[in-house]
């Protein structure tokens, strides 16, 4: 007997209207999602899952787990994946554009007009970081209630957080998820796992294989082309493509690679690099758009476009290449058992990130704690939209700076 497929809200919309909706929602997120990759997952959860119900909680957690496994910017990959599951490859591309373009435009503007300005200690930026903590705490609370509701899964979540906090390497997240998967295979081998919603990914497997082939091919070919073709934009594309392909953890983890590729190559000075990093902290959207600033500083507008496309291309190819197969594999009963533990571990990973780096680098005194408590109450109990909480955080940060 064929299973009925779960109809998601808005699934009856036509192709163009669905794409326009994805563009509108992702652009709103691109304009308001401050706080880095972990905070972005909280914003996505609130907008895509809680409000619009484009995916169920388990599917979202499974997608987050997959993106934590893959190299590249995890939050951007989650956004691309949601767009693809909603409206195919074009939906993924539009979701990425909406989420990314605001940050790209802002950082190019920083490079052109505000080069060298130190804004990292501005009060409103500090307020934005505090708002991000409230957003992440809300996401951890919501996901924990659904994905770690009993003592075994809560224990897995806490152990995962402990390992992430005490063993801080670029491979710790992957190791924790892999260990949780193995533990889930053993713990839930005899447990009746409820069926997950049968949602299809509108991406052909032949296209997925093509994407994975292209991903590996570019990694091999670009360095060879760079040896024989001495063209600045080609060198730029190669450097940023490798940075986007080979970094696990995304976000801040990519910064040492980018510094080596740009400052080490003499494309940009150390002081300009640090100034751009400060600017990247001030804008919403993915931290990988720091590449837009670096490209603009080294090769102008063509460099900004080249660096941006190069650093995000591996993320797109990886999601397009794995999502069709992942959707099939996750329906296997043994894989579902592993995912029960993996999803609990993802909650632990988010909990660890809530403490470090978000809490430890942001909450410095009693005033900061008061502000984050107020923002959390406004978000959770007063049900204010995230953009309003972000605005309140920025205003609160300015007030704290004047005290």
Mind sketching the topology for me?
Elements: H1 15-32, H2 37-51, H3 57-69, H4 74-113, H5 123-147, H6 151-166, H7 172-187, H8 205-228, H9 232-246, H10 255-262, H11 270-282, H12 290-329, H13 333-362, H14 366-380, H15 386-402
Q: Would you write up a description of this structure?
A:
The chain crosses the membrane at residues 93-117, 123-144, 156-187, 207-228, 304-326, 338-356, 362-382. Belongs to the chromate ion transporter (CHR) (TC 2.A.51) family. Its main location: membrane. It is a multi-pass membrane protein. This protein is 76% helix and 0% strand. It is mainly α and 403 residues long. The protein has a domain at 15-197 and 317-402. α8 runs antiparallel to α12 (290-329). The radius of gyration is 21 Å and the shape is globular. 49% of the residues are buried. The model is unreliable at 1-7 (pLDDT under 50).
């Amino acid at each position: 007997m064929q299973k009925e497929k779960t109809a998601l809200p808005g699934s009856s919309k036509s192709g163009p209207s669905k794409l326009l909706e994805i563009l509108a929602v992702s652009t709103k997120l691109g304009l308001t999602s401050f706080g880095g990759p972990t905070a972005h997952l909280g914003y996505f959860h609130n907008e895509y899952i809680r409000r619009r119900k484009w995916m169920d909680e388990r599917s979202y957690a499974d997608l987050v787990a997959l993106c934590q496994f893959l190299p590249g910017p995890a939050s951007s990959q989650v956004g691309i994946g949601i767009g693809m599951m909603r409206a195919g490859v074009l939906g993924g591309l539009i979701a990425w554009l909406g989420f990314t373009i605001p940050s790209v435009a802002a950082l190019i503007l920083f490079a052109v007009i505000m080069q060298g300005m130190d804004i990292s200690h501005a009060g409103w930026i500090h307020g934005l970081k505090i708002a991000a903590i409230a957003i992440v705490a809300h996401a951890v609370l919501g996901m924990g209630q659904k994905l770690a509701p009993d003592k075994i899964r809560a224990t897995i979540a806490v152990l995962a957080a402990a390992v992430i906090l005490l063993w801080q390497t670029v491979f710790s997240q992957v190791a924790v998820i892999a260990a949780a998967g193995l533990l889930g295979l053993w713990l839930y081998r005899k447990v009746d796992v409820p069926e997950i919603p049968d949602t299809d990914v509108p991406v052909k497997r032949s296209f997925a294989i093509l994407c994975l082939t292209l991903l590996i091919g570019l990694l091999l070919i670009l360095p060879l082309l760079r040896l024989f073709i001495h063209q600045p934009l080609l060198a730029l594309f190669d450097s940023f493509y490798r940075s986007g392909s080979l970094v696990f953890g995304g976000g801040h983890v990519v910064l040492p690679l980018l510094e080596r590729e740009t400052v080490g190559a003499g494309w940009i000075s150390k002081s300009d690099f640090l100034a751009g990093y400060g600017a990247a902290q001030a804008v919403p959207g993915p931290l990988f758009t720091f590449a837009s600033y670096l490209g603009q500083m080294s090769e102008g507008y063509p460099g900004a476009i080249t660096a941006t496309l190069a650093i995000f291309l591996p993320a797109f190819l990886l999601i397009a290449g794995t999502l069709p197969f992942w959707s099939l594999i996750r329906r296997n009963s043994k894989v579902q058992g592993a995912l029960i533990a993996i999803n609990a571990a993802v909650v632990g990973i988010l909990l660890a990130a809530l403490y470090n780096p978000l809490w430890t680098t942001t909450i410095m005194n009693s005033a900061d704690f008061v502000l984050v408590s107020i923002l959390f109450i406004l978000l959770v109990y007063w049900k204010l939209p995230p953009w309003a909480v972000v605005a309140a955080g920025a205003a609160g940060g300015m007030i704290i700076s004047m005290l």
